[in-house]
Amino acid sequence: MYVCLCHAVTDRQIRQAVCAGACSMRQLSQELGVNTQCGKCGKCAQQVLKNTLAELGDQGQKAA
Ligand code: FES
């Protein structure tokens, strides 16, 4: 699903960026360009970021 139409960024790309170490909207903006044009994708991108960080956190706890 496309999250950011201005830069054609999908939720999958955001997830990959978060898995690769991006942990804030600022980092996602720098890496993928989300939320840097019209700003409509901000909320959705933040949600994907939050969900992915939560998933990674769960995995981290299981691994620990
Ligand atoms: Fe992401 Fe416009 S949809 S900046």
What does this 3D model show about the protein?
- The protein is mostly helical.
- It has one domain: BFD-like [2Fe-2S]-binding domain (Arc Repressor Mutant, subunit A, Orthogonal Bundle).
- It is 61% helix and 8% strand.
- The protein has three helices and two strands; from the N terminus they run ββααα.
- A two-stranded antiparallel ribbon has the order 1-2.
- Strand 1 and strand 2 form a beta hairpin.
- Helix 1 (11-19) packs across helix 3 (42-63).
- The longest helix is centred in the last third of the chain and has 22 residues, at 42-63.
- The radius of gyration is 12 Å and the shape is elongated.
What is the CATH topology assignment? Arc Repressor Mutant, subunit A
Task: Compute the number of helices.
Answer: 3
Number of folding domains?
1
What is the rounded Rg? 12 Å
SSE-based structural type: mainly alpha
CA-CA gap between termini: 32 Å
Unreliable segments (pLDDT under 50, ≥5 consecutive)?
none
Please tell me the CATH architecture by its name. Answer: Orthogonal Bundle
Please report which band the strand proportion falls in: under 5%, 5-15%, 15-25%, 25-35%, 35-45% or over 45%: 5-15%
How would you sum up the global shape? Answer: elongated
- Small molecules in complex: FE2/S2 (inorganic) cluster
The first-level CATH class is given as: Mainly Alpha
Mean pLDDT: 94
> In sequence order, what are the helices and strands, one letter per element?
EEHHH
Give me the side-by-side strand order of the main sheet: 1-2
> What is the percent of helical residues?
55-70%
The major pleated sheet works out as: 2 strands, antiparallel
